[in-house]
Amino acid sequence: MSKLSIRGVSKVFAGGTTAVDNVSLDVADGELVCLLGPSGSGKSTLLRMVGGFEQPTSGTIAIDGQDVTRLPPEQRPTGMVFQSHALWSHMNVFANLAFGLKLRRRPASEIRDRVEAVLELVGLKGYGSRMTNELSGGQQQRVAVARSLILEPKILLLDEPFASLDQHLRERLREEVRDIQLRLKITTLFVTHGQDEALSMADRIVVMRNGGTEQADRPDVIYRDPQTPFVAGFIGTMNFIEGRVENGCFKHADVTVDLPVDDGPITLAVRPEALDLVGQGTGQAIIHRVTDFGTHGLVDLHLSDGTRVKSMVRSPEPFSAGQTVSLSPRAFAAFRDNVKLYRTSDAH
């Protein structure tokens, strides 16, 4: 059992900049939790504090009930994989992986067996004699993951490990790392700014902003039921339409729907896949561009007040630039003053 407990952790750097602000988080045994947020949200600083590379200004970090808040990295049961591979270029792959075990004075036979086992685990069997500068970027990152796993950490920490790789390789590696994590059942904290990465890998996503947490939930809940406008706009694509509620009805020049909340200004949030286009040639919304993705079409529109929205359609063929249409949201959420007041039961 390997559990991570973060309680009231803050980090204030010299000069008064608050990077992490009173964050509490539990990561269960074998769970992969993704810290997701824009640059400057505090996600990497939080991860580095768990790994011991930064010291919290306040709060505690515990692993399996043991307080590790003040322990240096080498005394923590954690393994860290950085964005830069941080491999020793003057050593071959075997030496890079064996280094930590040698420091722990493990027998040579054990070191050899564990290096061979972890290389096979990451799909690099037979690569021990290669120099690290002879490897591709993806292979180097596999070695970096192997180096963290070979010490059998209780907690695996991943700090945007695929950010420097091209899209195709990034997608393949994240699937491989997720498979390894599930096979080993290792508790993992993963930092990324890529929403696709978070949605495809995580058991839970923690959306961070300005050093704090906006929402922590399963990926499907984060996508379908965002609790704040920031989460709604940061995860996936979201249309925001400003209007007013009058007598239980949301009113906008191009959109009208029943909305049982108090009268006043409000923001409607609608996913592109939940925004239908009807009545070609009858509405005021003007199609700006139509993109054919093969599996579906994406229609960009201008509303009469200048708002840009997107609609996902099964086939782009009936639509063309310059055409006018009416909008009909099938599912939506409504926000006022950063508070969610309403959400339709039909998922986005």
Automatic annotation (TrEMBL):
<keyword id="KW-0067">ATP-binding</keyword>
<dbReference type="InterPro" id="IPR012340">
    <property type="entry name" value="NA-bd_OB-fold"/>
</dbReference>
<dbReference type="Pfam" id="PF08402">
    <property type="entry name" value="TOBE_2"/>
</dbReference>
<feature type="domain" description="ABC transporter">
    <location>
        <begin position="4"/>
        <end position="235"/>
    </location>
</feature>
<dbReference type="Pfam" id="PF00005">
    <property type="entry name" value="ABC_tran"/>
</dbReference>
<dbReference type="InterPro" id="IPR003439">
    <property type="entry name" value="ABC_transporter-like_ATP-bd"/>
</dbReference>
<dbReference type="InterPro" id="IPR008995">
    <property type="entry name" value="Mo/tungstate-bd_C_term_dom"/>
</dbReference>
<dbReference type="InterPro" id="IPR003593">
    <property type="entry name" value="AAA+_ATPase"/>
</dbReference>
<keyword id="KW-0813">Transport</keyword>
<dbReference type="GO" id="GO:0005524">
    <property type="term" value="F:ATP binding"/>
</dbReference>
<comment type="similarity">
    <text>Belongs to the ABC transporter superfamily.</text>
</comment>
<dbReference type="InterPro" id="IPR013611">
    <property type="entry name" value="Transp-assoc_OB_typ2"/>
</dbReference>
<dbReference type="InterPro" id="IPR027417">
    <property type="entry name" value="P-loop_NTPase"/>
</dbReference>
<keyword id="KW-0547">Nucleotide-binding</keyword>
<protein>
    <submittedName>
        <fullName>ABC transporter ATP-binding protein</fullName>
    </submittedName>
</protein>
<dbReference type="InterPro" id="IPR050093">
    <property type="entry name" value="ABC_SmlMolc_Importer"/>
</dbReference>
<dbReference type="InterPro" id="IPR017871">
    <property type="entry name" value="ABC_transporter-like_CS"/>
</dbReference>
